[in-house]
Design a protein that fits this description.
single chain; 220 residues; mainly alpha; 0% strand; globular
Length: 220
């Protein structure tokens, strides 16, 4: 693989990962949401201030991931695990685009419930956005597992065997935190859990980008 093509692929992955963390702008923009008990999808809900900023950021991130996945499959040597990884990255990108195109239409609260919708932290899961979000999370976790497994199996890409593995563990743990806590009563700071989860995904994508840039990813 040509060095310029590898650099372009790495740049697309890194940029996509960074843009996927556009939610950090909530700390400088007056979104009106409490990060400890709100979902990131609420930043893109219809009628929310700065919805366009977060929505188009997700669209750009998703498009870059789809482009990176196609490029990775076409330009890099193929092995079973890396092929699974690139396909999963592509699905993640497509689902992220869908996330931004099918926003939550209403975020109910105990004070102002939406007609026909329950209140609570997870009411937006009664929406097509739930499906696209679930696909995105499952896909990126599959990609993380596939590339990490490949790093150990092919004895390459030390960054994915160390930092990548640590980020996979953190992301999987926070995903479990959210799934389990959703079925329990009480305040489990799920907003914080999701932000750690998405932050872990973004950092892992940057780690993948560095791996691509530093190596032709040619398994031995």
């Amino acid at each position: 693989m040509k060095s310029w093509a590898r650099a372009a692929l790495a740049s697309a992955i890194a940029l996509g990962g960074i843009v996927y963390s556009s939610w950090v702008l909530e700390f400088v923009l007056p979104t009106g949401l409490n990060p400890t008990n709100s979902f990131l999808s609420e930043l893109e809900a219809l009628g929310r201030p700065y919805r366009g900023v977060f929505s188009w950021a997700d669209t750009l991130s998703g498009a870059l991931m789809v482009l990176a996945a196609i490029s990775g499959l076409l330009l890099l040597p193929r092995r079973a695990l890396t092929t699974v990884g690139w396909v999963a990255v592509g699905v993640f990108g497509g689902a992220t685009i869908a996330d931004s195109r099918f926003p939550v239409t209403c975020v109910p609260t105990p004070v102002s419930p939406c007609a026909g919708e329950p209140s609570g932290l997870f009411p937006q899961l009664h929406h097509i956005h739930a499906l696209t979000s679930t696909i995105a999370v499952v896909s990126i976790l599959v990609a993380m597992i596939a590339f990490t497994w490949a790093a150990f199996r092919y004895r390459r890409w030390p960054l994915l065997r160390t930092l990548g593995l640590a980020l996979l563990i953190v992301t999987a743990a926070t995903s479990a935190w959210m799934m389990i806590a959703d079925n329990l009563t009480g305040d489990y700071k799920l907003g914080i859990a999701q932000r750690i989860q998405v932050g872990g995904m973004s950092l892992w994508l940057v780690a993948l980008a560095v791996t691509v840039w530093r190596s032709p990813m040619r398994p031995e």
